[in-house]
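Re: that backbone. Tokens:
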């Protein structure tokens, strides 16, 4: 089950992040690196984590005009990443250009399209997307992701029943917004569920950050998450 866990390495300091990644060697293979550590350590930091033997998901959520995203993917694909996120709201052409750039690179890199951020509630969503619901956006985005041949989609565990019929197990699902105690602290994650529930709803991978990073015993927290996934 630990092969299905991606640890969001959302620490504030590159040194601390390298230490934790080192301690996790042989225990947990997938690590997600976000904007803060990327800004601090750049590709040199990312490469160090890859050299430790980890599969790295660089979560930059690329969202720009197709040509700019294509150029970014061309560069990023040459560094040995396991996965890279792009934003499905960038539209069909952007997704196509990104996918072609990944294919042409010859690298074994997975492009993961963000669907709708797990921090959105319906109310907050409609403030900036006045004429659509989260569900409508999810359906439309899942369809475009499927049709453009992007490798994976990132969505909330609660969104899986909506997108799975469209993705038909041909697009892998990566699921953040995972919390151990149902109804417990969920920070800024509005659409959250337990690890077990996420896996039973079809998650290929779950992404977990604070439930591990803020735990008194991080390794025990990882075990607990894996146990919860096994129980289902
Ligand atoms: O700490 P927590 O478990 O909430 O971390 C979730 C991670 O997943 C964060 O790094 C966040 O950037 C990322 N993420 C997310 N929702 C998405 C895509 C990525 O929470 N839709």
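Recovered sequence:
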């Amino acid at each position: 089950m630990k092969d299905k866990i991606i640890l969001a390495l959302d620490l504030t300091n590159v040194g601390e992040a390298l230490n934790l990644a080192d301690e996790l060697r042989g225990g947990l293979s997938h690590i997600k690196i976000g904007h803060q550590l990327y800004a601090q350590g750049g590709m040199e930091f990312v490469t160090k984590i890859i050299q430790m033997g980890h599969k790295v998901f660089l979560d930059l959520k690329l969202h720009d005009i197709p040509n700019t995203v294509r150029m970014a993917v061309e560069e990023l694909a040459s560094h040995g990443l396991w996965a890279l996120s792009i934003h499905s709201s960038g539209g069909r052409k952007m997704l196509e250009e990104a996918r072609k750039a990944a294919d042409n690179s010859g690298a074994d890199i997975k492009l993961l399209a963000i669907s709708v951020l797990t921090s959105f509630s319906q109310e907050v969503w409609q403030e900036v997307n006045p004429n659509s619901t989260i569900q409508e956006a999810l359906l439309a985005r899942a369809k475009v992701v499927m049709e453009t041949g992007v490798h994976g989609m990132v969505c909330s565990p609660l969104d899986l029943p909506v997108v799975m019929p469209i993705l038909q197990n041909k697009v892998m699902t990566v699921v953040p917004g995972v919390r151990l105690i149902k109804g417990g602290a969920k920070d800024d994650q509005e659409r959250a569920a337990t690890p077990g529930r996420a896996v039973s709803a079809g998650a290929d991978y779950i992404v977990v950050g604070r439930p591990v990073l803020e735990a008194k015993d991080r390794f025990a927290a990882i075990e607990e998450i894996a146990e919860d996934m096994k129980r289902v």
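Residues 8, 10, 34, 59, 114, 117-118, 154, 176-177, 187, 189, 207-211 surround cytidine-5'-monophosphate (CB under 6 Å). Residues 3 and 187 are 25 Å apart (CA to CA).
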